[in-house]
Amino acid sequence: MQQRAEKTRVLARAEAWLRAALEIAGALILAALFLVVMAAVLRRYVFGGGFVWSDELATWLFLALIAVGAPLAATGPLAMRLDVIVKLLPARGRRVVAVLAEAIAFQGSFILAMGGANVAALVGGHSTVLGLPEWLRFAGFAGAGGLTTLLLFLHIRRERALADALSAVVLGLCLYAATRLQFDLFLMPSLAAALFAGAGLLLGAPLPFALLAGVSITAPFGGLMPEPAIVQTMVGGVGKFLLLAIPFFLLAGEILTEGGLAERLIRFAATLVGHWRAGLAQTALVSSALFSGASGSSIANAAFGAKVMAPTLVARGYPPANAAAIVASVSMLDNIIPPSIAFLILASATNLSVGSLLVGGFVAGGVLTLALAIGIHFSVRGVVDAAPRASASERGRALIGAVPAIGLGIVVVVGIRFGVVTVTEASALAVAYAVVAGLALRSLDMRDVFAALRKSASESAAIGLLIGASAPFAFLLAVDRVSEQMAGLVTALGAGPYAVALLANLVLLVAGLFLDIGAAILLLAPLLLPAAVAAGLDPIQFGVVLVVNLMIHGLTPPLGILVYVVSGVMRVPAGAVFRAVLPLLGVLLAALMVLSLGMAAWPALAPLAKALF
């Protein structure tokens, strides 16, 4: 027994060392990425001109960040695993399912390793500006696959028996070998990929690796995605300069949190609505709406709210499940109110204008905030937590204290909307703003900055890996002309704007139950948008409604990522939170209906609005 415990400790130390090394490497790459982009911004707007090499180097660094962080996305909180169904099984069943899930994760890591190595061996030439060998980009992902295999094995071996770890590896190799077989079954490659990836998701496999495994399994059904093509498409899917804004917005939000500026927003929100009925819950709502202008990440806001707001709510008499439900519900605003990472992902998938989407996000965010305020007012029972009304001087002092955090969102959105800076440049300026503000207020030191770099680098890599893993899947959908079938589905009740808006929302509501929010945007937006435009719907308004629809699924089972984040931090059963969130979920669905009706009515109202204004 003592020898086994010692082995477990050794494995735990090895896993912790490897994870720390990857996190530190990711933090250093993210710091270098920020310096490159900021140098280009200063050169362009202060000294005139620009660096020819900056955009290409920044893109290569982002690819390196994803490759370094990919192993972290196979284990831990970044794995995007669906474990609700698995937890319902008896102990023996959970063990079997866990081995199957890890086998699919191993299969995905083998695809990364072998596919990346094959491309690196075959590709030639050098990059356009830097002159770097092209094979380096793919070799990085080959290394990511190898490190993922190692970290995954260490993780399984530490938690379970050696037999389980070896069984998962062997079964993963068998699945990997099965992609070389040929079947006579007629099945669309995209459908085969969806079925296999869906099965992996239900078993609890990490979502990005389940997507990669699903695409690879289509070769026996006539799919056109061998391993090298999968990795090439994956690298192409994330090699976009626009996506560099994701790690910077995450980093800006982390720095605000580490520097205590987010707590200043809470104090300011309390002076505005703390005297209302359910004043503390309303404070959580308003502070979340204000924090949305600086973060762009609902998951980050949910984790922050669970640590800071939820304990205070419970202390004031709110049942823990209700406090968790309030925090989870209000945190969805971060991906609606600009700057929004969801809108960045949508823009990269559809080529819609980011600036226009951000303006639409303000409108939708206002409607959702109002709906949540009404829902909180009528759903909170048996809690008296209204504070005395704040005086004008108290509000003024709180506003002055919150200005540094509020100003960040204003600078970013105004700069993007009026074309002063690009989205990526604005996100880098947001990081610089947050660092300068925190240091000037003496609420931030370099240790806090490095902690923010480590955390945001890991989160950015996980999101980037998901975007990359979705790219081959999206290619299969295009080859199988699924967009035409989707258009037929959403026009089944007619091609008018109201019918298309209704059916598109129903499709999204169903798909969002089983797909991660980011993956749903990447896969469904390119399919639904052409049908919406053909029906006369404004593409920007449709994009905003699509994001609102899918963000609501952060609160619904079985995925409900926002509920899981909050319940995990607060140690409250997720089932209890899902039940407590139902009233707020109802008002959010009502707000979605209002936004959808407004979108459908806009083609008829637009000429009148132009004539009046």
Task: Characterize the structure shown.
It contains 26 helices and no strands. The model has no long low-confidence stretch (mean pLDDT 83). The radius of gyration is 24 Å and the shape is globular. The chain folds into two domains: 238 residues, no CATH class; 240 residues, no CATH class.
- The secondary-structure element order is HHHHHHHHHHHHHHHHHHHHHHHHHH
Radius of gyration: 24 Å
Total helices: the number is: 26
Helix content: over 70%
Structural class category: mainly alpha
* Spatial gap, N to C terminus: 79 Å
Tally of distinct domains:
2
Brief summary:
The chain has 26 helices and no strands. The protein has 613 residues and is mainly alpha-helical. It folds into 2 domains: 2-239, no CATH class; 278-391 and 480-605, no CATH class.
Question: How are the elements arranged and paired?
Answer:
Elements: H1 2-47, H2 54-69, H3 84-87, H4 91-122, H5 135-159, H6 162-178, H7 189-203, H8 207-216, H9 227-238, H10 245-258, H11 261-273, H12 279-292, H13 298-315, H14 320-331, H15 341-350, H16 354-379, H17 392-417, H18 423-440, H19 446-479, H20 482-490, H21 497-511, H22 517-534, H23 539-552, H24 561-570, H25 574-580, H26 582-612
Helix pairs in contact: 1-2, 1-5, 1-18, 1-19, 2-5, 2-19, 4-5, 4-6, 4-8, 4-9, 5-6, 7-8, 7-19, 8-19, 9-19, 10-18, 10-19, 11-12, 11-17, 12-13, 12-14, 12-16, 13-14, 13-24, 14-24, 14-25, 15-22, 16-23, 16-26, 17-18, 19-22, 20-22, 21-22, 21-23, 21-26, 22-23, 23-26
